[in-house]
Design goal:
binds flavin-adenine dinucleotide, seven-stranded mixed beta sheet, five-stranded parallel beta sheet, 18 helices, 475 residues, alpha/beta
């Protein structure tokens, strides 16, 4: 029986483990933390558990595919919750815009909040966004890492593909050319943050995220996003995967250009779910050290949980700032400082995931984008003022849990606190992101810092693709 050792029990590691065990491999997962999940984590305060990572599930078919590889299914393991409304966008002194699970309802809401011209622009943009996704998904997401050479080899077909995915201009330029309504421009540019990128630099291909969320749908998960991690771990264990927690792997042993062991434990293949930055920084030793791209780092974030009096709230609320939204990208990526007047994201976890809270209070999860490795002085006071100002919390509601980009950097070594590996800040990013099959034979990468990138479904896909590469290499 072939043996795989997987370093890390984050989403990519869990997906690889299930896929390989399902194909008859012996699989051992070694995780530095005391539990699975990585960035899809939890914390407990006064007996109440809340999610500290992702809050929205998209592309559930990827999760279903992983669970099926382990002999189960999404329907058997989890209960997805549609949200209505799903997102509420609020501008200071400006409009409030709600988005729904049903695109038709969202369009009606855009018309009511922003007018008929905005509705037409939005409908046109969603159709454009769908076209990109349909052209990009099979080639750039559900496939091996693309190479420039591969695109060139396709000749005219390759060039046509690049044009279909709008891969040459920036997200922001495409939004500006299609949408005149300022509020909609903000909503659409914000999708760049879903993989921690800069809307002013990321290729317009990323405009497909609007379709992924609004066209294909975003869900809550009953019991919290951590139910996804629990389901994956459960299915992995059922498939015979062995887990070891609380041990940080120090090195991958390489002999004759082939990864042969992990801290001396023999393995036929090694899958690195840790950030590839841990390898490039020598924190997870691989000799000779592979060259893997980690720059520019994607966004990090300041996160907190407020214990707030229970009230009628929308699942996801975004409080946009007073100043132009694009200034936030300039702060994070050009000035390398946390946004002076930040956008604040709020997830009401009881509403989103039917999680339980305290007897009279519920946990509200907050996120403010920040540069990787940044100091975030004063952000908490600003975020709380914005929440009070928007009527989302009372002045006496308090932060009971918090995490800074520095904390993230410490918890995820080599990441510098970046949440999604390298940012997609150029038209070549899809080609420079580390492939799942490494240059050292027998060494594979499965995480948000490897192909196809960060976010729950893409990390799962990263794990699936790493497993597919392994199975192909050993066929
Ligand atoms: C606050 C926040 C909000 C987010 N919001 C969303 C969202 O709404 N929707 C969405 O789709 N995505 C979201 N994401 C992103 C998503 O959570 C991540 O992209 C994903 O969980 C990362 O998974 P991964 O496979 O890269 O593994 P990671 O989560 O990075 O886990 C890697 C694991 O490897 C372990 N490890 C590292 N080094 C070693 C070692 N040497 N030995 C042993 N173990 C090691 C670590 O302890 C860790 O558990 C969010 C993330 C955060 C933090």
């Amino acid at each position: 029986m072939k043996k795989a050792v997987i370093i890390g029990a984050g989403l990519g590691g869990l997906a690889s483990a299930i896929e390989l065990a399902g194909r008859g491999w012996e699989v051992r997962v070694i995780e530095a933390a005391a539990e699975a999940g990585g960035k899809a984590g939890i914390a407990v305060v006064d007996g109440v558990e809340f999610d500290t990572g992702p809050s929205l599930l998209t592309l559930p078919e990827v999760l279903d595919g992983v669970l099926r590889a382990g002999g189960s299914s999404l329907g058997d393991e989890l209960d997805l919750l549609p949200l209505n409304p799903a997102f509420r966008y609020i501008w200071p002194g400006g409009p409030t815009l709600d988005m729904y699970a049903d695109p038709a309802e969202t369009l009606a809401s855009v018309r009511d909040a922003l007018g008929m011209a905005a509705e037409a622009e939005f409908a046109d943009f969603l159709a454009y966004s769908r076209r990109i996704w349909e052209a990009a998904a099979s080639r750039f997401v559900y496939a091996e890492a693309p190479t420039v050479f591969g695109v060139l080899r396709m000749g005219m077909t390759g060039l046509a593909a690049v044009s279909k995915i709008d891969g040459v201009r920036t997200m922001e330029a495409a939004i500006r050319s299609r949408v005149r309504t300022p509020a909609l421009r903000d909503v659409l540019a914000r999708y760049a943050t879903y993989n921690g990128s800069d809307a002013r630099r990321a290729p317009a291909t990323l405009n497909c995220i609007a379709h992924v969320e609004l066209g294909l749908g975003g869900w809550g998960v009953r019991g919290g996003m951590y139910s996804v991690v629990r389901a994956l771990e459960r299915v992995a264990r059922r498939g015979g995967v062995e887990f070891e927690y609380g041990r940080r792997v120090e090195r991958v042993d390489v002999k004759g250009g082939h990864a042969v062991a992990v801290d001396g434990e023999p393995a036929d293949v090694v899958v690195v779910n840790a950030d590839v930055g841990a390898v490039t920084a020598g924190l997870l030793r691989v000799e000779p050290r592979p060259s893997l791209n980690v720059e520019p780092r994607s966004m990090s974030g300041w996160n907190a949980v407020v214990r707030a009096r229970r009230a009628m709230r929308v699942g996801h609320t975004v409080l946009f700032p007073e100043r132009p939204y694009l200034e936030e990208f300039a702060d994070v990526f050009d000035r390398r400082r946390w946004p002076a007047d930040p956008t604040v994201y709020v997830c009401a976890q009881e509403r989103c995931h039917a999680r339980g809270g305290w007897p009279e209070d519920e946990p509200l999860f907050l996120m403010v984008n920040a540069p990787a490795g940044a100091e975030v002085d004063g952000v908490e006071a600003v975020a709380m003022r914005r929440l009070v100002g928007a009527g989302l919390i009372a002045i006496e509601d308090a932060v009971v849990w918090r995490r800074t980009p520095r904390d993230l950097a410490e918890r995820f070594p080599g990441s510098e606190g970046a949440l999604y590996g390298a940012a997609s800040n150029s038209m070549f990013s899809a080609f420079t992101r580390p492939a799942n099959r490494g240059t050292v034979r027998g060494l594979y990468y499965a995480s948000g810092s490897a192909h196809p990138g960060g976010g729950v479904p893409l990390c799962l896909q990263s794990g699936r693709q790493a497993a597919a590469d392994i199975l192909a290499d050993f066929a």
